[in-house]
Design goal:
lipid biosynthesis, nucleotide-binding, Helix Hairpins, single chain, about 120 residues, kinase, 2 domains, ATP binding
């Protein structure tokens, strides 16, 4: 699909923001894991900002939570592309989905590690 020539500057920023909001809404509507992570982030984000002693600690606590959402969005995108290609089982499709899931798991481990080290050490 060709890009319109007038899609520059402020118009491009407005369009990109609209598409991003559509992506968030779609993930929230169609992905149970994303909804769960959003509901965990909602109380933990302000708690992390309150518990962090310095700007760096606040950024680590909050940023680790946001990374989970980022990785979940990418995982969902991979799963959607794999599902779009076909429903028949294929080892590469399974591997792609499993690796996306593993990436989310690593992001969740990052939250546990970051919160543990910042708050307990």
């Amino acid at each position: 699909m060709a890009k319109p020539e007038n899609n520059r500057g402020l118009r491009r920023l407005i369009n990109a923001t609209r598409w991003s909001m559509q992506g968030f809404a779609s993930a929230y509507r169609h992905e149970a894991a994303f909804r769960q992570e959003v509901w965990l982030l909602a109380p933990l984000l302000p708690v992390g900002l309150w518990l962090g002693d310095s700007g760096v600690e606040k950024a680590l606590l909050a940023g680790s939570l946001l990374i989970v959402l980022l990785v979940e969005l990418l995982n969902s995108a991979v799963e959607n592309v794999v599902d779009r290609i076909g429903d028949e089982p294929h080892k590469l499709s399974g591997r792609a989905k499993d690796q996306g899931s593993a990436a989310v798991f690593v992001a969740l481990l990052l939250v546990v590690m970051t919160w543990g080290l910042v708050l307990l050490v």
